[in-house]
């Protein structure tokens, strides 16, 4: 990742989109402090968290939680749902006495739309969508300020996917969470995000509020990504943009604009000079040497 700057407000969902290998999961891991950043700073609620260590880092873990793609891999098959939810409650000092834990487990299950009676069951007794609800309840147990969803609905069938997206949106509004929603699925992102950042080979190439990004994408890469999503309107005249070539290696990205090897508008300057992320409107910024990219609509 290189030169990444953005903020997320309380109660806001920022989606990070891009093809696999673009760095979006690494970004999530760096914020969560699972990966150290080599330069730059991450702030949470006024605290500089990118170089915290020891007990400060441990305290910080309570404020940031993650929901992974595969709940089957992230939930221990040997633990009951009650034990899975009790563990963070106890570890982070949210509840200690048995009665307190039982009350909180029942509350968390209700929040995610599961009856409290399922607390004594094991993960394998649930469907994929229900397991993801349990994983969300576990992430909410320490009462975090920031929730990172890393492809949290990608492994689910269509109906579970819709239910979990609605659940996340509902919980986020109710609890006032800041949410970083990492996904390659633009249809899902259009449904849940307030703002969207598009990544290509470790850089943010466009960041905009949802409406601007989906109605008038500014960067050629965003235009190409959106053109690949089926338009539900039969009368649509939207043109599909096929990108030439493969995604270059993120270990050795092209000089200048990383996208120049595949961009239909590339010119000499693009091969030499890295474009900066500049405002195109009050709600939209893009990193492209072309001030105005032709519309694809
Ligand atoms: Fe294309 Fe050049 Fe813009 Fe990069 S800077 S997106 S190569 S036109």
Verbal overview:
There is one protein chain. By secondary structure, the chain is an alpha/beta fold. Helix content is 33%, strand content 14%. It has two domains: 13-193, Rossmann fold, CATH 3.40.50.300; 211-286, no CATH class. The chain has helices at residues 24-31, 54-63, 71-74, 81-91, 98-111, 128-140, 158-175, 186-192, 210-215, 220-227; strands at 13-17, 43-44, 47-48, 64-67, 146-150, 178-182, 195-200, 203-209, 278-281, 284-286. The strands form two sheets. An eight-stranded mixed beta sheet has the order 4-5-6-1-7-8-10-9, with helices on both faces. A hairpin with a 2-residue loop joins strand 7 and strand 8. The two termini are 31 Å apart. It binds iron/sulfur cluster. Iron/sulfur cluster binds next to loops.
The total number of structural domains is 2
Name the CATH architecture of the largest domain.
3-Layer(aba) Sandwich
Strand content: 5-15%
Count the DSSP helices: 10
Give a short account of the largest sheet. 8 strands, mixed
CATH top level class name of the largest domain: Alpha Beta
Number of strands: 10
Helix content: 25-40%
Straight-line N-to-C gap: 31 Å
H and E order? EHEEHEHHHHEHEHEEHHEE
Q: Could you give the order of strands across the largest sheet?
A: 4-5-6-1-7-8-10-9
What is the alpha-carbon Rg in Å?
A: 21 Å
Basic shape: elongated
Return residue spans where pLDDT drops below 50 for at least 5 consecutive residues.
none
CATH homologous superfamily grouping of the largest domain: P-loop containing nucleotide triphosphate hydrolases
Class from secondary-structure proportions: alpha/beta
């Amino acid at each position: 990742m290189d030169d990444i700057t953005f903020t997320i407000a309380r109660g806001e969902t920022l989606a990070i989109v891009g093809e696999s290998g673009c760095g979006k999961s690494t970004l999530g891991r760096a914020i969560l402090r699972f990966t150290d950043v080599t330069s730059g700073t991450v702030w949470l609620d006024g605290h500089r968290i990118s170089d915290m260590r020891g007990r400060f880092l441990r305290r910080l873990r309570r404020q940031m939680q993650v929901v992974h793609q595969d709940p089957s891999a992230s939930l221990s098959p040997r633990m009951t749902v009650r034990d899975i939810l009790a563990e963070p409650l106890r570890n982070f000092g949210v509840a200690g006495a048995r009665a307190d834990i039982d009350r909180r487990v029942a509350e968390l299950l209700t929040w995610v739309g599961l009856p409290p009676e399922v607390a004594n069951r094991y993960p394998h007794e649930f469907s994929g969508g229900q397991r993801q609800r349990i994983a969300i309840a576990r992430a909410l147990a320490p009462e975090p300020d920031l929730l990172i969803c890393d492809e949290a609905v990608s492994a689910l069938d269509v109906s579970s996917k819709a239910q979990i997206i609605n659940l996340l949106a509902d919980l986020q509004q109710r609890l006032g969470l800041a949410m970083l929603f990492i996904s390659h699925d633009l249809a899902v992102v259009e449904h849940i995000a307030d703002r969207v950042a598009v990544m290509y080979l470790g850089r943010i190439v466009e960041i905009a509020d949802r409406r601007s990004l989906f109605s008038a994408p500014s960067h050629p890469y965003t235009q190409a990504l959106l053109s690949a999503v089926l338009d539900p309107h039969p009368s649509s005249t939207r043109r599909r943009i096929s990108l030439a070539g493969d995604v270059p290696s993120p270990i050795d990205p092209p000089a200048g604009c990383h996208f120049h090897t595949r961009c239909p508008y590339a010119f000499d300057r693009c091969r030499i000079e890295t474009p900066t992320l500049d405002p195109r409107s009050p709600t939209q910024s893009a990193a492209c040497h072309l001030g105005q990219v032709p519309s694809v609509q």
